[in-house]
């Protein structure tokens, strides 16, 4: 490991992200849109990581160790208010695969997340959304479920169906109230307005 101090900072920033998220869940304030406190944590982490990348490139295993490298991935995965940064990070990870150990699962999740926010089909089935009835479903796929499951299997991931069951159980444990149809429509409108404001959508 080349940068132990940076590794500790990355791990601490991930811990803080999780801590704030859990507190907001406990307070019942996480799921009514993008909570401003949560967004502030994500932005602070993202801007710090952006400055770090300009100095050392992507913080891969060789630079900061496995745990801290995964923490860096979580920060970029949560940098949803900075579309250009997320896309540039994915491009950098692709480029540095030749010289650094870049987790292909991390790249799959990041690629799918960018596709989700840009309203494009995803390739690995890692992103899930609510349907019109408020049920969790995979964001639309760029291929058949069978083909996407094969891609997932090649990365050591379980099937879309198995992942959906896991996430549904997790969501049921965290989210105690169900939205009405009008509340879901309002939430979708707010989400679309937010995506336009930060630059995911241009029309």
Describe this structure in words.
It is a single chain. By secondary structure, the chain is mainly α. It folds into 2 domains: 1-82; 103-203, no CATH class. It is 65% helix and 3% strand. It has 9 helices and 2 strands. The chain has helices at residues 4-26, 36-56, 61-64, 66-77, 83-96, 104-117, 145-154, 160-174, 181-198; strands at 128-130, 136-138. It has a two-stranded antiparallel sheet. β1 (128-130) and β2 form a beta hairpin. α1 runs antiparallel to α2 and α4 packs parallel to α6 (104-117). The protein starts with a helix and ends in a 5-residue tail after the last helix.
Sheet having the most strands? 2 strands, antiparallel
Work out the helix count: 9
Distance between the termini: 45 Å
Calculate the mean pLDDT score and round it.
Answer: 94
Question: If strands are numbered along the chain, what order do they take across the biggest sheet?
Answer: 1-2
From the spread of the alpha carbons, the general shape counts as globular
Rounded Rg: 17 Å
How many DSSP-defined strands? 2
* Beta-strand residue percentage: under 5%
The structural class is mainly alpha
Number of domains: 2
Topology order in helix (H) and strand (E) letters? HHHHHHEEHHH
Residue windows where pLDDT falls under 50 for at least 5 positions:
none
Residues in helices, as a percent range: 55-70%
Pfam family, one: DUF6624
InterPro entries: DUF6624 (IPR046732)
């Amino acid at each position: 490991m080349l940068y132990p101090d940076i590794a500790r900072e990355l791990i601490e920033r991930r811990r803080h992200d999780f801590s704030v998220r859990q507190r907001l869940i406990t307070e019942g304030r996480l799921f009514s849109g993008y909570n401003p406190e949560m967004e502030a944590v994500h932005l602070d982490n993202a801007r710090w990581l952006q400055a770090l990348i300009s100095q050392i490139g992507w913080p891969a295993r060789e630079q900061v160790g496995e745990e801290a490298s995964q923490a860096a991935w979580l920060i970029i995965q949560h940098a949803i208010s900075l579309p250009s940064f997320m896309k540039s990070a994915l491009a950098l990870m692709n480029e540095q695969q030749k010289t650094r150990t870049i987790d292909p699962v991390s790249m799959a999740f990041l690629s799918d997340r960018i596709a989700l926010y840009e309203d494009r089909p995803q390739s690995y089935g890692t992103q899930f959304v609510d349907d019109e009835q408020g049920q969790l479903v995979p964001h639309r796929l760029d291929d058949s479920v069978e083909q996407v499951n094969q891609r997932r299997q090649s990365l050591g991931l379980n099937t879309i169906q198995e992942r959906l069951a896991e996430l549904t159980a997790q969501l049921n444990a965290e989210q105690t109230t169900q939205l009405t149809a009008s509340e879901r429509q309002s939430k979708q409108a707010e989400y679309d307005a937010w995506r336009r404001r930060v630059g995911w959508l241009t029309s």
